[in-house]
Design goal:
Bound molecules: zinc ion
Strand content: 25-35%
Strand order of the largest sheet: 1-2-3-6-7
Largest sheet: 5 strands, antiparallel
Order of helices and strands: HEEEEEEEHH
Number of strands: 7
Structural class: alpha+beta
Radius of gyration: 15 Å
Distance between the termini: 35 Å
Length: 158
């Protein structure tokens, strides 16, 4: 399909909780194609539908050479063990801040044809699952920052 323009922080669509996908139809397939085409670029690890202006519960990822997507994802497991690594967002270009995340996560959902699909992983995949599902709930990683890091982030955005 096509590479889409990525919405930037400040766009209200990024703060709008998404609607669950009900129809695994041509319209959904087009959204998935656009997400996968747009995430298929160096330095792009994940992209959620609101970032291309679509308020549906679906995201795409590009991790370790694998591109895929997950529809109606639910985080079903997060490790108690956490790690703090620099995190960025395609909607907040040029900035990275240390962000606390569970170091392992599991998400259940569906592929674009309605088949059940589970994604899981450590490190970047765990971070991606948590970051993208936040997007689908209208949250940005900035919301996860605390203390001096949060102040630095808001100064950088001002
Ligand atoms: Zn993001």
């Amino acid at each position: 399909m096509s590479v889409r323009v990525i919405r930037r922080v400040g766009d209200p669509v990024l703060r709008t909780p998404t609607d669950p996908v009900c129809d695994f139809d041509e319209k959904l397939h087009a959204v998935v194609s656009d997400l996968e085409d747009t995430v298929n670029a160096p330095g792009h690890a994940g992209l959620a539908a609101p970032q291309i202006g679509v308020t549906l519960r679906v995201f795409a990822y590009n991790i370790e050479g694998r591109i895929g997507h997950l529809v109606n994802p639910r985080l079903v497991e997060r490790s108690a063990e956490t790690e703090t690594e620099d995190e960025g967002c395609l909607s907040i270009p040029g900035l990275w801040f240390p962000t606390l995340r569970a170091s392992y996560a599991v998400a259940e959902g569906f592929d674009q044809y309605g088949q059940q699909l589970t994604l899981s992983g450590h490190g970047l995949m765990a971070r991606c699952l948590q970051h993208e599902i936040d997007h689908l709930d209208g949250r940005l990683y900035l919301d996860r920052l605390t203390g001096e890091t949060k102040r630095a982030a808001y100064r950088a955005l001002a």
